[in-house]
Amino acid sequence: MMDHSLTIGAMMERAENFFPKKEVISQTHDKIHRLTYKEIGKRTRSLMSALDKLGIQRGDRVGTLAWNTHRHLEIYFAAPGMGAVLHTINIRLSPEHIIYIINHAEDKIIFVDEDIFPLINQLHEHFTTVKTFVVMTDKDTLPETTLTNVYSYEDLIRDGDETYEFLEDIDERDPAGMCYTSATTGKPKGVMYTHRSIALHSYALGLADSAAVSESDVAMPVVPQFHVNAWGIPFACTWFGSTQVMPGPRFTPERLARFIEEYKVTITAGVPTIWLGLLKEIETNNYDLASLRGVLCGGSAAPIGMIRAFEQKHHIPFFHAYGATETTPLATFSRLKSYQADLSMDEKIQERTRQGILAPGLEMKVVDENGDIPWDNETMGELLLRGPWIANEYYNDDRTEKSFVNGWFHTGDVVTVDEEGTIKIIDRTSDLIKSGGEWISSVELENVLMAHEAVFEACVVAIPDEKWQERPIACVVLHDGYDGKVTKEELLDFLKPQFANFWIPDDVIFVEEIPKSSVGKFLKRELRKIVLTFMEQ
Ligand code: AMP
User: Fold this and answer.
1) Is 81 in contact with 73 (CB distance < 8 Å)?
2) Backbone angles phi and psi of 482, in degrees to 5
3) Ligand 1 pocket mutation pick from 300, 364, 435 by most atoms within 8 angstroms of CB
4) pLDDT, tens digit, for every residue of 437-458?
5) Can you give the residue ranges of the AMP-dependent synthetase/ligase domain (predicted)?
6) Sign of CA dihedral 424, 429, 435, 439
7) Over 60: is that where the pLDDT of 517 sits?
8) Residue 466 designated active-site
9) What's the predicted TM-score (pTM) here?
Protein backbone atom coordinates (compact mmCIF):
# COMPACT_ATOMS: atom_id res chain seq x y z
CA MET A 1 0.00 0.00 0.00
CA MET A 2 1.03 3.58 -0.48
CA ASP A 3 2.48 5.28 2.52
CA HIS A 4 0.30 8.32 1.97
CA SER A 5 -0.15 11.00 4.61
CA LEU A 6 -3.57 12.03 5.88
CA THR A 7 -3.47 15.82 5.96
CA ILE A 8 -5.80 18.59 6.99
CA GLY A 9 -5.29 20.50 3.74
CA ALA A 10 -6.64 17.49 1.83
CA MET A 11 -9.79 17.58 3.95
CA MET A 12 -10.58 21.10 2.76
CA GLU A 13 -9.66 20.18 -0.83
CA ARG A 14 -12.22 17.39 -0.68
CA ALA A 15 -14.90 19.84 0.43
CA GLU A 16 -13.93 22.22 -2.39
CA ASN A 17 -14.01 19.47 -5.02
CA PHE A 18 -16.99 17.40 -4.01
CA PHE A 19 -19.20 19.76 -2.01
CA PRO A 20 -18.61 23.20 -3.56
CA LYS A 21 -22.28 24.14 -3.17
CA LYS A 22 -22.69 23.04 0.44
CA GLU A 23 -22.72 25.86 2.96
CA VAL A 24 -21.26 27.13 6.18
CA ILE A 25 -23.73 29.42 7.93
CA SER A 26 -22.03 31.67 10.44
CA GLN A 27 -23.20 34.25 12.94
CA THR A 28 -20.70 37.03 13.57
CA HIS A 29 -21.22 40.16 15.68
CA ASP A 30 -23.03 42.01 12.97
CA LYS A 31 -24.69 39.53 10.67
CA ILE A 32 -25.22 36.04 9.33
CA HIS A 33 -22.78 34.93 6.64
CA ARG A 34 -23.61 32.11 4.22
CA LEU A 35 -20.57 30.83 2.38
CA THR A 36 -20.17 27.73 0.21
CA TYR A 37 -17.23 25.38 0.61
CA LYS A 38 -16.02 26.75 -2.73
CA GLU A 39 -15.86 30.21 -1.17
CA ILE A 40 -14.50 28.96 2.15
CA GLY A 41 -11.81 27.07 0.22
CA LYS A 42 -10.75 30.20 -1.67
CA ARG A 43 -10.71 32.26 1.52
CA THR A 44 -8.66 29.58 3.28
CA ARG A 45 -6.14 29.65 0.45
CA SER A 46 -6.00 33.47 0.56
CA LEU A 47 -5.41 33.23 4.28
CA MET A 48 -2.56 30.76 3.78
CA SER A 49 -0.91 33.19 1.36
CA ALA A 50 -1.38 36.00 3.90
CA LEU A 51 0.21 33.91 6.66
CA ASP A 52 3.08 33.19 4.30
CA LYS A 53 3.53 36.91 3.55
CA LEU A 54 3.42 37.72 7.26
CA GLY A 55 6.39 35.40 7.73
CA ILE A 56 4.64 32.43 9.31
CA GLN A 57 6.72 29.35 8.73
CA ARG A 58 6.34 25.63 9.07
CA GLY A 59 5.81 24.64 12.67
CA ASP A 60 5.00 28.19 13.83
CA ARG A 61 2.08 28.46 16.20
CA VAL A 62 -0.95 30.43 15.06
CA GLY A 63 -3.07 31.46 18.06
CA THR A 64 -6.80 32.16 18.00
CA LEU A 65 -8.94 33.94 20.59
CA ALA A 66 -12.27 33.53 18.91
CA TRP A 67 -15.87 32.32 18.91
CA ASN A 68 -17.36 29.71 16.60
CA THR A 69 -17.52 31.38 13.19
CA HIS A 70 -16.61 30.69 9.56
CA ARG A 71 -13.42 32.74 10.02
CA HIS A 72 -12.29 30.54 12.87
CA LEU A 73 -13.06 27.55 10.63
CA GLU A 74 -10.88 28.98 7.86
CA ILE A 75 -7.94 29.32 10.28
CA TYR A 76 -8.53 25.67 11.29
CA PHE A 77 -7.51 24.72 7.74
CA ALA A 78 -5.21 27.58 6.72
CA ALA A 79 -2.73 27.21 9.62
CA PRO A 80 -2.12 23.44 9.33
CA GLY A 81 -2.68 23.64 5.55
CA MET A 82 0.51 25.68 5.15
CA GLY A 83 2.46 23.65 7.72
CA ALA A 84 1.85 25.85 10.76
CA VAL A 85 0.08 24.82 13.97
CA LEU A 86 -3.40 25.95 14.95
CA HIS A 87 -3.43 26.97 18.62
CA THR A 88 -6.94 27.67 19.90
CA ILE A 89 -6.87 29.61 23.18
CA ASN A 90 -9.66 29.39 25.74
CA ILE A 91 -10.96 32.95 26.04
CA ARG A 92 -12.52 32.20 29.44
CA LEU A 93 -9.24 31.59 31.23
CA SER A 94 -7.78 34.12 33.61
CA PRO A 95 -5.44 36.72 32.04
CA GLU A 96 -2.54 35.06 33.86
CA HIS A 97 -3.26 31.71 32.20
CA ILE A 98 -3.86 33.26 28.80
CA ILE A 99 -0.45 34.96 28.98
CA TYR A 100 1.16 31.72 30.12
CA ILE A 101 -0.40 29.68 27.31
CA ILE A 102 0.52 32.15 24.57
CA ASN A 103 4.12 32.36 25.75
CA HIS A 104 4.46 28.64 26.42
CA ALA A 105 3.13 27.74 22.97
CA GLU A 106 5.32 30.52 21.51
CA ASP A 107 2.52 31.86 19.33
CA LYS A 108 3.82 34.04 16.49
CA ILE A 109 0.52 35.52 15.43
CA ILE A 110 -2.86 35.83 17.10
CA PHE A 111 -6.23 35.99 15.38
CA VAL A 112 -8.76 37.68 17.61
CA ASP A 113 -12.46 38.46 17.37
CA GLU A 114 -13.25 42.17 17.65
CA ASP A 115 -15.00 41.92 21.02
CA ILE A 116 -12.05 40.03 22.53
CA PHE A 117 -9.53 42.54 21.20
CA PRO A 118 -9.64 44.74 24.36
CA LEU A 119 -7.97 41.81 26.11
CA ILE A 120 -5.06 42.06 23.67
CA ASN A 121 -4.76 45.80 24.37
CA GLN A 122 -4.56 44.91 28.04
CA LEU A 123 -2.16 41.95 27.89
CA HIS A 124 0.07 42.32 24.83
CA GLU A 125 3.06 43.70 26.78
CA HIS A 126 3.41 40.33 28.47
CA PHE A 127 3.58 38.33 25.23
CA THR A 128 7.12 37.25 24.46
CA THR A 129 6.83 35.78 20.95
CA VAL A 130 3.77 37.31 19.27
CA LYS A 131 4.68 39.59 16.38
CA THR A 132 1.34 40.15 14.70
CA PHE A 133 -2.35 40.44 15.55
CA VAL A 134 -5.24 39.97 13.15
CA VAL A 135 -8.68 41.29 14.06
CA MET A 136 -11.74 39.48 12.77
CA THR A 137 -14.55 41.93 12.19
CA ASP A 138 -17.26 42.79 9.66
CA LYS A 139 -16.50 46.49 10.08
CA ASP A 140 -14.25 48.52 7.79
CA THR A 141 -12.30 49.99 10.67
CA LEU A 142 -10.17 48.30 13.30
CA PRO A 143 -10.76 48.73 17.03
CA GLU A 144 -8.75 51.41 18.77
CA THR A 145 -5.25 50.41 19.77
CA THR A 146 -1.76 51.77 20.22
CA LEU A 147 -0.37 48.61 18.62
CA THR A 148 1.03 49.00 15.13
CA ASN A 149 1.22 45.37 14.05
CA VAL A 150 -2.53 44.86 13.74
CA TYR A 151 -4.19 43.71 10.52
CA SER A 152 -7.77 43.29 9.41
CA TYR A 153 -8.72 39.69 8.61
CA GLU A 154 -10.90 40.67 5.69
CA ASP A 155 -8.14 42.89 4.22
CA LEU A 156 -5.76 39.93 4.36
CA ILE A 157 -8.32 37.72 2.60
CA ARG A 158 -9.00 40.39 -0.03
CA ASP A 159 -5.31 40.91 -0.78
CA GLY A 160 -4.47 37.20 -0.62
CA ASP A 161 -3.97 34.63 -3.37
CA GLU A 162 -7.05 32.42 -3.63
CA THR A 163 -5.14 29.87 -5.72
CA TYR A 164 -2.42 29.33 -3.08
CA GLU A 165 -1.76 25.58 -2.75
CA PHE A 166 -2.02 23.51 0.42
CA LEU A 167 1.49 22.37 1.33
CA GLU A 168 2.11 19.00 -0.36
CA ASP A 169 4.99 17.55 1.61
CA ILE A 170 3.40 17.45 5.04
CA ASP A 171 4.00 14.28 6.99
CA GLU A 172 0.86 13.10 8.76
CA ARG A 173 2.83 12.97 12.00
CA ASP A 174 3.65 16.68 11.78
CA PRO A 175 1.99 18.90 14.38
CA ALA A 176 -1.29 20.45 13.23
CA GLY A 177 -3.01 21.80 16.32
CA MET A 178 -2.66 22.58 20.02
CA CYS A 179 -5.02 22.95 22.94
CA TYR A 180 -4.32 23.56 26.61
CA THR A 181 -6.25 21.96 29.43
CA SER A 182 -6.39 23.23 33.00
CA ALA A 183 -4.56 21.23 35.63
CA THR A 184 -5.32 20.53 39.30
CA THR A 185 -2.39 22.61 40.35
CA GLY A 186 -0.25 24.97 38.42
CA LYS A 187 -0.44 26.07 34.87
CA PRO A 188 -2.54 24.66 32.01
CA LYS A 189 -1.03 21.73 30.12
CA GLY A 190 -0.62 21.71 26.35
CA VAL A 191 -1.52 18.88 23.98
CA MET A 192 -0.19 18.83 20.41
CA TYR A 193 -2.34 17.12 17.77
CA THR A 194 -0.97 15.79 14.49
CA HIS A 195 -2.56 15.76 11.03
CA ARG A 196 -2.90 12.01 11.45
CA SER A 197 -4.58 12.12 14.86
CA ILE A 198 -7.11 14.70 13.68
CA ALA A 199 -7.87 12.77 10.48
CA LEU A 200 -8.32 9.43 12.26
CA HIS A 201 -10.44 11.10 14.93
CA SER A 202 -12.61 12.58 12.16
CA TYR A 203 -13.18 9.09 10.75
CA ALA A 204 -14.25 8.03 14.24
CA LEU A 205 -16.84 10.84 14.34
CA GLY A 206 -18.24 9.52 11.07
CA LEU A 207 -18.74 5.94 12.21
CA ALA A 208 -22.36 4.77 12.24
CA ASP A 209 -22.03 3.62 15.84
CA SER A 210 -20.60 6.91 17.07
CA ALA A 211 -21.79 10.36 15.97
CA ALA A 212 -22.32 9.13 12.37
CA VAL A 213 -21.48 12.59 10.98
CA SER A 214 -22.18 12.61 7.25
CA GLU A 215 -22.78 14.79 4.19
CA SER A 216 -26.50 14.91 4.91
CA ASP A 217 -25.96 16.47 8.33
CA VAL A 218 -26.48 20.08 9.26
CA ALA A 219 -24.12 20.25 12.21
CA MET A 220 -24.05 22.99 14.83
CA PRO A 221 -21.06 22.74 17.16
CA VAL A 222 -22.04 24.72 20.25
CA VAL A 223 -18.98 23.50 22.11
CA PRO A 224 -16.44 26.30 21.57
CA GLN A 225 -13.83 25.94 18.87
CA PHE A 226 -11.29 26.56 21.66
CA HIS A 227 -12.49 23.51 23.60
CA VAL A 228 -10.65 20.55 22.02
CA ASN A 229 -11.32 21.93 18.52
CA ALA A 230 -15.08 21.93 19.09
CA TRP A 231 -14.62 18.18 19.67
CA GLY A 232 -13.23 17.82 16.13
CA ILE A 233 -16.62 18.50 14.54
CA PRO A 234 -15.47 21.30 12.18
CA PHE A 235 -12.74 19.02 10.77
CA ALA A 236 -15.02 16.02 10.24
CA CYS A 237 -17.91 18.09 8.83
CA THR A 238 -15.71 19.87 6.31
CA TRP A 239 -14.13 16.60 5.21
CA PHE A 240 -17.48 14.89 4.82
CA GLY A 241 -19.23 17.90 3.25
CA SER A 242 -21.83 18.45 5.98
CA THR A 243 -23.51 21.84 6.26
CA GLN A 244 -22.15 23.68 9.30
CA VAL A 245 -23.92 26.24 11.44
CA MET A 246 -21.60 28.35 13.58
CA PRO A 247 -23.51 30.01 16.44
CA GLY A 248 -21.00 32.86 16.88
CA PRO A 249 -20.27 35.15 19.83
CA ARG A 250 -22.21 35.20 23.08
CA PHE A 251 -25.07 33.03 21.86
CA THR A 252 -28.21 32.50 23.93
CA PRO A 253 -30.43 29.41 24.24
CA GLU A 254 -32.96 31.38 22.14
CA ARG A 255 -30.45 31.71 19.31
CA LEU A 256 -29.60 28.02 19.48
CA ALA A 257 -33.26 26.97 19.33
CA ARG A 258 -33.98 29.44 16.53
CA PHE A 259 -30.99 28.21 14.49
CA ILE A 260 -32.01 24.57 14.92
CA GLU A 261 -35.48 25.42 13.63
CA GLU A 262 -34.40 27.80 10.86
CA TYR A 263 -31.45 25.86 9.43
CA LYS A 264 -32.89 22.42 10.17
CA VAL A 265 -29.90 21.40 12.27
CA THR A 266 -29.63 17.61 12.48
CA ILE A 267 -26.82 17.26 15.00
CA THR A 268 -25.42 19.54 17.66
CA ALA A 269 -22.84 19.16 20.42
CA GLY A 270 -22.06 20.77 23.74
CA VAL A 271 -21.65 20.43 27.51
CA PRO A 272 -24.63 19.70 29.81
CA THR A 273 -25.00 23.37 30.87
CA ILE A 274 -25.80 24.31 27.28
CA TRP A 275 -28.49 21.65 27.06
CA LEU A 276 -30.03 22.68 30.38
CA GLY A 277 -30.34 26.19 28.92
CA LEU A 278 -31.83 24.93 25.67
CA LEU A 279 -34.26 22.73 27.53
CA LYS A 280 -35.55 25.69 29.52
CA GLU A 281 -35.95 27.68 26.30
CA ILE A 282 -37.89 25.01 24.43
CA GLU A 283 -40.10 24.41 27.43
CA THR A 284 -40.99 28.10 27.58
CA ASN A 285 -41.34 28.89 23.89
CA ASN A 286 -42.48 26.89 20.88
CA TYR A 287 -39.96 25.66 18.35
CA ASP A 288 -40.04 23.00 15.68
CA LEU A 289 -36.94 20.92 16.43
CA ALA A 290 -38.00 17.86 14.45
CA SER A 291 -34.89 18.04 12.25
CA LEU A 292 -32.62 17.06 15.18
CA ARG A 293 -31.40 13.49 14.97
CA GLY A 294 -28.98 13.88 17.86
CA VAL A 295 -27.83 16.07 20.71
CA LEU A 296 -24.28 15.15 21.64
CA CYS A 297 -23.35 15.79 25.24
CA GLY A 298 -19.94 15.48 26.90
CA GLY A 299 -17.40 17.29 29.05
CA SER A 300 -19.32 16.53 32.27
CA ALA A 301 -21.75 13.84 33.24
CA ALA A 302 -25.21 14.44 31.78
CA PRO A 303 -27.88 14.52 34.51
CA ILE A 304 -30.57 11.88 34.12
CA GLY A 305 -33.48 14.35 34.34
CA MET A 306 -32.13 16.22 31.38
CA ILE A 307 -31.64 13.07 29.30
CA ARG A 308 -35.19 12.02 30.16
CA ALA A 309 -36.62 15.39 29.13
CA PHE A 310 -34.85 15.35 25.77
CA GLU A 311 -35.65 11.73 24.98
CA GLN A 312 -39.14 11.27 26.39
CA LYS A 313 -40.71 14.70 26.43
CA HIS A 314 -39.19 16.20 23.31
CA HIS A 315 -38.35 13.01 21.39
CA ILE A 316 -34.85 14.24 20.66
CA PRO A 317 -32.21 11.48 20.67
CA PHE A 318 -29.59 12.29 23.27
CA PHE A 319 -26.05 10.90 23.02
CA HIS A 320 -23.62 10.91 25.87
CA ALA A 321 -19.94 10.84 24.95
CA TYR A 322 -16.74 11.04 26.93
CA GLY A 323 -13.29 12.34 26.20
CA ALA A 324 -10.64 14.87 27.13
CA THR A 325 -8.25 17.35 25.60
CA GLU A 326 -5.66 14.56 25.60
CA THR A 327 -7.98 12.28 23.57
CA THR A 328 -8.81 14.71 20.68
CA PRO A 329 -11.46 14.18 22.40
CA LEU A 330 -13.83 11.34 21.38
CA ALA A 331 -12.98 8.25 23.45
CA THR A 332 -16.31 6.61 24.29
CA PHE A 333 -19.77 6.97 22.82
CA SER A 334 -23.04 5.77 24.28
CA ARG A 335 -25.46 3.89 22.06
CA LEU A 336 -27.71 1.02 22.95
CA LYS A 337 -26.68 -2.29 21.42
CA SER A 338 -29.10 -3.98 19.01
CA TYR A 339 -30.10 -6.58 21.61
CA GLN A 340 -30.90 -3.84 24.15
CA ALA A 341 -33.87 -2.70 22.05
CA ASP A 342 -36.40 -4.35 24.37
CA LEU A 343 -35.17 -2.65 27.54
CA SER A 344 -37.88 -0.60 29.24
CA MET A 345 -37.83 3.17 28.65
CA ASP A 346 -36.47 3.70 32.16
CA GLU A 347 -33.68 1.21 31.60
CA LYS A 348 -32.81 2.88 28.32
CA ILE A 349 -32.59 6.29 29.98
CA GLN A 350 -30.43 4.80 32.75
CA GLU A 351 -28.20 3.32 30.06
CA ARG A 352 -27.85 6.76 28.45
CA THR A 353 -26.39 8.22 31.64
CA ARG A 354 -23.39 5.97 31.11
CA GLN A 355 -20.58 7.26 28.95
CA GLY A 356 -20.68 4.32 26.53
CA ILE A 357 -18.12 2.07 24.94
CA LEU A 358 -14.71 2.72 23.47
CA ALA A 359 -14.40 4.00 19.88
CA PRO A 360 -12.86 1.46 17.48
CA GLY A 361 -9.13 2.06 17.21
CA LEU A 362 -8.68 2.89 20.89
CA GLU A 363 -7.77 0.54 23.73
CA MET A 364 -8.56 0.88 27.41
CA LYS A 365 -7.61 -0.55 30.77
CA VAL A 366 -9.27 0.16 34.08
CA VAL A 367 -7.01 -0.40 37.04
CA ASP A 368 -6.84 -0.02 40.78
CA GLU A 369 -3.90 -0.72 43.08
CA ASN A 370 -4.37 -4.46 42.44
CA GLY A 371 -4.31 -4.23 38.64
CA ASP A 372 -7.20 -4.65 36.18
CA ILE A 373 -10.60 -4.35 37.83
CA PRO A 374 -13.47 -6.75 37.06
CA TRP A 375 -16.19 -5.45 34.73
CA ASP A 376 -18.86 -5.87 37.38
CA ASN A 377 -20.39 -2.41 37.37
CA GLU A 378 -19.25 -1.94 40.97
CA THR A 379 -15.50 -1.99 41.29
CA MET A 380 -13.94 1.37 40.62
CA GLY A 381 -10.66 2.02 38.88
CA GLU A 382 -8.80 4.64 36.92
CA LEU A 383 -9.42 4.68 33.17
CA LEU A 384 -6.26 4.32 31.07
CA LEU A 385 -6.36 4.88 27.30
CA ARG A 386 -4.12 4.41 24.28
CA GLY A 387 -4.59 4.77 20.56
CA PRO A 388 -3.76 6.85 17.50
CA TRP A 389 -5.64 9.95 18.68
CA ILE A 390 -4.55 9.77 22.33
CA ALA A 391 -1.70 12.13 23.30
CA ASN A 392 1.55 10.61 24.51
CA GLU A 393 2.86 13.68 26.30
CA TYR A 394 2.12 17.21 27.45
CA TYR A 395 3.87 19.79 25.34
CA ASN A 396 7.21 20.73 26.97
CA ASP A 397 5.95 19.90 30.43
CA ASP A 398 7.42 17.89 33.34
CA ARG A 399 3.95 16.71 34.25
CA THR A 400 4.08 14.31 31.27
CA GLU A 401 5.71 11.62 33.42
CA LYS A 402 2.79 11.50 35.80
CA SER A 403 0.02 11.07 33.24
CA PHE A 404 1.71 9.09 30.48
CA VAL A 405 3.10 5.84 31.84
CA ASN A 406 4.26 2.81 29.83
CA GLY A 407 2.36 3.87 26.73
CA TRP A 408 -0.94 4.55 28.52
CA PHE A 409 -2.62 7.87 29.19
CA HIS A 410 -3.84 7.96 32.79
CA THR A 411 -7.07 9.93 32.48
CA GLY A 412 -7.47 10.74 36.18
CA ASP A 413 -11.09 9.63 35.82
CA VAL A 414 -12.44 6.97 38.12
CA VAL A 415 -14.92 4.67 36.42
CA THR A 416 -16.87 1.46 36.76
CA VAL A 417 -17.36 -0.88 33.81
CA ASP A 418 -20.37 -3.16 33.28
CA GLU A 419 -20.34 -6.50 31.50
CA GLU A 420 -21.16 -4.76 28.20
CA GLY A 421 -17.88 -2.84 28.51
CA THR A 422 -19.80 0.40 29.07
CA ILE A 423 -18.07 2.86 31.36
CA LYS A 424 -19.54 5.15 33.98
CA ILE A 425 -17.49 8.09 35.22
CA ILE A 426 -17.64 8.23 39.00
CA ASP A 427 -15.28 11.02 39.90
CA ARG A 428 -11.92 12.58 39.21
CA THR A 429 -8.95 11.23 41.05
CA SER A 430 -8.25 14.86 41.70
CA ASP A 431 -10.85 17.34 42.81
CA LEU A 432 -11.19 19.74 39.96
CA ILE A 433 -14.46 21.55 39.78
CA LYS A 434 -16.29 21.62 36.48
CA SER A 435 -18.56 24.61 35.98
CA GLY A 436 -20.38 25.22 32.72
CA GLY A 437 -18.00 22.87 30.95
CA GLU A 438 -14.91 24.69 32.20
CA TRP A 439 -12.44 23.64 34.84
CA ILE A 440 -11.90 25.46 38.10
CA SER A 441 -8.90 24.50 40.18
CA SER A 442 -9.89 24.29 43.82
CA VAL A 443 -6.26 24.17 44.83
CA GLU A 444 -5.43 27.47 43.17
CA LEU A 445 -8.37 29.17 44.86
CA GLU A 446 -7.27 27.71 48.19
CA ASN A 447 -3.73 28.87 47.73
CA VAL A 448 -4.79 32.44 47.11
CA LEU A 449 -7.36 32.43 49.92
CA MET A 450 -4.73 31.15 52.29
CA ALA A 451 -2.58 34.11 51.36
CA HIS A 452 -5.14 36.42 53.02
CA GLU A 453 -3.93 37.62 56.42
CA ALA A 454 -7.10 36.48 58.21
CA VAL A 455 -7.17 32.98 56.72
CA PHE A 456 -5.62 30.00 58.44
CA GLU A 457 -6.89 27.23 56.23
CA ALA A 458 -9.06 27.22 53.14
CA CYS A 459 -10.53 24.33 51.26
CA VAL A 460 -12.67 24.63 48.15
CA VAL A 461 -15.11 21.90 47.16
CA ALA A 462 -17.65 21.43 44.41
CA ILE A 463 -21.34 21.30 45.06
CA PRO A 464 -23.83 20.17 42.44
CA ASP A 465 -25.55 23.00 40.61
CA GLU A 466 -28.56 22.72 38.36
CA LYS A 467 -27.37 25.22 35.80
CA TRP A 468 -23.57 24.92 35.89
CA GLN A 469 -23.24 21.28 36.98
CA GLU A 470 -20.87 22.24 39.75
CA ARG A 471 -19.98 25.41 41.60
CA PRO A 472 -17.15 26.04 44.07
CA ILE A 473 -17.80 26.73 47.74
CA ALA A 474 -14.93 27.85 49.96
CA CYS A 475 -14.60 26.68 53.56
CA VAL A 476 -12.37 28.88 55.64
CA VAL A 477 -10.80 28.56 59.08
CA LEU A 478 -9.80 31.98 60.41
CA HIS A 479 -6.66 32.76 62.36
CA ASP A 480 -7.18 33.32 66.06
CA GLY A 481 -8.45 36.77 66.81
CA TYR A 482 -10.01 37.32 63.38
CA ASP A 483 -13.45 35.97 64.28
CA GLY A 484 -16.09 38.45 63.12
CA LYS A 485 -13.41 40.78 61.75
CA VAL A 486 -13.55 39.61 58.13
CA THR A 487 -16.59 39.10 55.93
CA LYS A 488 -17.33 36.65 53.11
CA GLU A 489 -17.49 39.58 50.70
CA GLU A 490 -13.99 40.74 51.65
CA LEU A 491 -12.59 37.29 50.94
CA LEU A 492 -14.36 37.02 47.58
CA ASP A 493 -13.16 40.51 46.64
CA PHE A 494 -9.67 39.37 47.51
CA LEU A 495 -9.97 36.58 44.91
CA LYS A 496 -11.61 38.61 42.14
CA PRO A 497 -8.56 40.33 40.62
CA GLN A 498 -6.73 37.03 40.32
CA PHE A 499 -9.30 34.77 38.68
CA ALA A 500 -11.82 34.66 35.88
CA ASN A 501 -15.29 35.55 37.17
CA PHE A 502 -16.69 32.07 36.94
CA TRP A 503 -13.93 30.81 39.26
CA ILE A 504 -15.14 32.91 42.19
CA PRO A 505 -16.83 30.63 44.77
CA ASP A 506 -20.58 31.00 45.23
CA ASP A 507 -20.19 31.15 48.99
CA VAL A 508 -17.70 31.19 51.82
CA ILE A 509 -18.49 29.13 54.89
CA PHE A 510 -16.56 29.81 58.08
CA VAL A 511 -15.74 26.53 59.83
CA GLU A 512 -13.88 25.51 63.01
CA GLU A 513 -11.66 23.01 61.24
CA ILE A 514 -11.22 21.16 57.99
CA PRO A 515 -11.29 17.35 58.13
CA LYS A 516 -7.96 15.85 57.14
CA SER A 517 -6.62 12.48 56.03
CA SER A 518 -3.89 10.48 57.80
CA VAL A 519 -1.22 12.29 55.85
CA GLY A 520 -2.67 15.69 56.59
CA LYS A 521 -4.44 16.29 53.28
CA PHE A 522 -7.83 17.93 53.22
CA LEU A 523 -10.50 15.27 53.09
CA LYS A 524 -12.62 16.85 50.43
CA ARG A 525 -15.19 14.11 50.31
CA GLU A 526 -15.93 14.64 54.02
CA LEU A 527 -15.96 18.38 53.67
CA ARG A 528 -18.35 18.20 50.75
CA LYS A 529 -20.82 16.32 52.98
CA ILE A 530 -20.50 18.97 55.67
CA VAL A 531 -21.05 21.74 53.14
CA LEU A 532 -24.12 20.03 51.68
CA THR A 533 -25.64 19.58 55.15
CA PHE A 534 -24.85 23.19 55.97
CA MET A 535 -26.51 24.37 52.77
CA GLU A 536 -29.63 22.32 53.38
CA GLN A 537 -30.18 24.03 56.73
P1 AMP B 1 -11.39 18.53 29.09
O2 AMP B 1 -9.99 18.15 28.83
O3 AMP B 1 -11.58 19.93 29.52
O4 AMP B 1 -12.27 18.18 27.93
O5 AMP B 1 -11.91 17.67 30.32
C6 AMP B 1 -11.85 16.27 30.27
C7 AMP B 1 -12.50 15.70 31.48
O8 AMP B 1 -13.90 16.01 31.51
C9 AMP B 1 -12.45 14.19 31.54
O10 AMP B 1 -11.20 13.72 32.00
C11 AMP B 1 -13.61 13.90 32.48
O12 AMP B 1 -13.23 14.08 33.83
C13 AMP B 1 -14.62 14.97 32.14
N14 AMP B 1 -15.62 14.44 31.19
C15 AMP B 1 -15.61 14.50 29.86
N16 AMP B 1 -16.71 13.94 29.34
C17 AMP B 1 -17.44 13.49 30.38
C18 AMP B 1 -18.68 12.80 30.51
N19 AMP B 1 -19.42 12.47 29.47
N20 AMP B 1 -19.10 12.51 31.75
C21 AMP B 1 -18.39 12.84 32.85
N22 AMP B 1 -17.21 13.48 32.79
C23 AMP B 1 -16.74 13.81 31.57
Assistant:
1) no
2) -100, -5
3) 300
4) 877 878 778 878 988 989 888 8
5) 15-395
6) negative
7) no
8) no
9) 0.85
